[in-house]
Amino acid sequence: MIRNITFVGATHGNEQSGIQLVKNWQRFGLPAGYSKLNIDCYLANKAAMKANVRFVEEDLNRQFTPALLSKTPESLEAQLAHTLNQQWGPKGASNIDLLIDIHNTTSAMGATLIILETDEFHTQLARYVKQQMPTANILVEDEKPAAEHGYLCTLGKRGIMIEVGAQPQGLLRADTYALTAQMALTVLDFVGLYNQQNVPGLPACEVFRFGENIIYPLDGDSERLAMIHPALQDKDFQPLNHGDPVFQLFNSDEQTWEGDTIYPHFINEAAYHKLHVAFATAVKATL
Ligand SMILES: [Zn+2]
After folding, report:
1. Which of 117, 163, 212, 254 is flagged as catalytic?
2. Which residues belong to CATH 3.40.630.10 in the chain?
3. What Enzyme Commission number(s) appear in the record (predicted)?
């Protein structure tokens, strides 16, 4: 039974679609038909939101590992993580049954549902979302136990992320907003069916399972030697095959993909610029 649901925006303070959706639901309430569910809407990092930046000192969405939560917090975001852990947790013992954290990305990932585990609830949820929104992507990040992730959504008993793009940082696009709202309400529709034990038989669905982050080619001083190849730009969740171009080097060479077929995503994500992450890999699977 999913009793308590919390929607969070502003985990990243410049991701305007989730921020605006949460603000609108706080001001106007949720659409009619969802009144039976106990839903809370929350803006996580208000200081970052006011400044229209991802974070003030550190990425809030990496602060929720068991190790960091047991350490004395120093940065503003680490302190906020500890406060939220007290308020909603402690992690592992929360009374939030489902925490839905809303993000957007500068990558062309469309509407993506990120799940961290593939138990019956999350499998059925993924299949339902894919059935209701056939163009949506399901990204599975189960490379480690869900609780070991540093994501804010892991404070809930169950935690998922909605990730929609492409939307530049710091501004709101109506198409991104619409997809975000649609996916959020689709998740609530599923919860309603799940609570009534009325989930229909759902066909297995295609998912993308996270592999690893790929770093830009760098020189010895960590200076970039390349940019994303134009043939790869905006091709999130499309197959990248052996021999396909990946990087356009500034010396006019190009670098190709030498491995087996993968499905890149978070391609050229602005927030990963400092980390030199060019994209993440995934393999296609059935759930
Ligand atoms: Zn984000």
Report:
1. 163
2. 4-204
3. 3.5.1.15
Token pair 């490379």: residue? 143
In the chain, ranges of CATH 2.20.25.160 domains: 214-274
Q: Which of 212, 277, 265 is nearest to 240 (CA)?
A: 265
Active site residue 163: yes
pLDDT digits (tens, 9 = 90+) for 136-186: 999 999 999 999 999 999 999 999 999 999 999 999 999 999 999 999 999
Residue 200 DSSP label:
P
103 C-alpha vs ligand 1 centroid, how far in Å? Answer: 4
CA 1, CA 254: separation in Å to the nearest integer?
52
**pLDDT tens per residue across span 217-273:** 999 999 999 999 999 999 999 999 999 999 999 999 999 999 999 999 999 999 999
**Matching residue, tokens 């499905």:** 263
CATH domain 214-274 topology = N-terminal domain of TfIIb (2.20.25)
Distance 104 CA to ligand 1 centre (A): 6
Q: Each residue of 23-82: pLDDT tens digit? A: 999 999 999 989 889 999 999 999 999 999 999 999 999 999 999 999 999 999 999 999
Q: Which CATH class is domain 4-204?
A: alpha beta
Question: Distance from the CA of 253 to the center of ligand 1, in angstroms?
Answer: 33
Residue carrying structure tokens 């998740």: 187
Closest to 188 measured CA to CA, from 40, 27, 10, 20: 40
Describe the crossing of helices 174-195 and 120-132 by its angle, rounded to 10 degrees. Answer: 130
